[in-house]
Amino acid sequence: MAAKISKIFLYLSTVIWLALVALPKLTLAEKVAVTRQEVLDVAKEIHPPGCTDSRTADYCQLATAYDVRGEIRDLLEQGMSKTQVIDQLVQKYGERILAAPTKEGFNLVPWILPAIAILIGSILVAFIIHRWAKKKPNHEEDQNLQPSYTEEDELKVNEELKNWL
Question: What angle, rounded to 10 degrees, do the helices at 82-93 and 36-43 form?
Answer without folding.
Answer: 50
